[in-house]
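Q: Sequence in, structure out?
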Amino acid sequence: MDSYQVTRQLIIRWFNRYEKEGIAELEATKGQGRRPILRIDNEEEMNKVESLVEASPQSLKVVVSQWEEELGTVLIFYLPSYSLHLNLIETLWRKIKIECLRPQDFMSKEDLHQAVKKYSEKIQ
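A: Exactly. Output:
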């Protein structure tokens, strides 16, 4: 289940829906799934985008076309429900676990805190 990023509870819900309504109930419907995330590092651009969205909150097409006119190309992509590789803290945490933490560092919360603090001082 982990390789498909599906929880046991979700599988049980799918099974119950299938038993109740059949295969048609399992088809994706509009509104399901994770909402898109907007990431803009430039504060000035972010303010422009916010004003565009406020002007046309119900129309993504209008916002995107105005955005492209004012700011350049817009690339819209939808993230999977859990995107470890796009979350920088997850990448850093994985690196810390692989490179510097030993099993004994997990014996207590204080030990873990000290090991992470020691590693963070090393990389600064």
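DSSP finds five helices and no strands in the chain.
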